[in-house]
Amino acid sequence: MKNFAVVSYGYSASRWLAYSLSLHPKVFVSHGTYAIDSIYNGSDSIEREHEKSGERLDSLTRGRERLDIKTMAINKLYSLYQSSFPGMQAYGNVHTYVPRELFYKEGGESLDIRVFHLVRNPIAFLKSHTTGVLQSHNVPELNEHYENFYKLFLTRFPYILKKAWFDKGNPNQRAFIISCYTLFNLAQDIRRYGSLMKTIRMEDITTNPIALKSICEEITDCEYDQNSLKQWVEKGKINQHQTSHKQKINLSKDEKVILQSIIPEELYAYLYTLNYELPELNHDHKKFD
Question: Taking Cα atoms as reference points, which of 164, 136, 162 lies closest to residue 148?
Fold first, then answer.
C-alpha cells in the first residue's frame, strides 16, 4: 500500500489531477478541504457544467467543508482514508496542503508518504490567484482570511507603504499584492523543500496523456490504462485554470513594478528551476526573508 500527497498552492488543475488519479479503481484520492469523498463520489461532468454556466465559487464554498483536515494529525487523516475506503492499493490527497503545511505536520514519519509538488507557470498562477482573491468577497470567512494575510504582508514588508505606486484603497492592487506574497511563499517552499518533492507541471499532464500516465503511476504505483487517460485529457478542463505551453502570459508594467518590489532576486531564481519562461525583473532586493 502506498501513501502519497500532491501539495500545491492551487490554481493548477489540482481537481482535474485528483479525478485523473481516481480513474484507477484501487486508488483513493481526496482533494483540498472538500469532503474526503468528493472525488470518489463526485461527478466531473456536473462540475464541468458548473464551469460552463459561470459558477466558479465551488472551491471557495463546498471546497472549504473540511477545514478541520488542516489541523488533523497526518497519520489520523490517512487512517481515516483507509477506514472509510478499505482495500485500496494507494491512498492520498491533492492540494490538501501547501508544501510547508505538510512538512510541518506531526505524525507522518511512519507513513512513508511520497510527496509531489503540482505547479503551473508562475505568471499564470499570479493571474488566476488574483482573480480568486477578488472573488473571495463572496465568502466572508475567506475574505477575512485574505484581509489578515494582507495585514501580515504589510507588517513584514513595511517599505511597500512608502512606494509611490502603493494605493491601499485599490482592491485590484490589493488582490495582486496578496498573490505576489503567495508566490513569494511558494518560492520559499521550493528553496526549503524542493529536494523532498517531485515537481509536476500542470501544462505537461493536462495536454499529454503519456506524461499523465507516467506521473499517475509514479504517484500511486498502480498501472493506468493509456486509452482511458487519453480520453480523459481529450475531455478537457474542469475549471478555468488550465492553460497550454503555447499560451503566453504577460505582466503589465505596473504589475512588474509590484512583483519586483516584493519578490527578491534570490527567491525568483528558484521559480526558474520550474523551467518556465519568466519575465526579467529589476528586483528591489537581492535577498529578503
Answer: 136
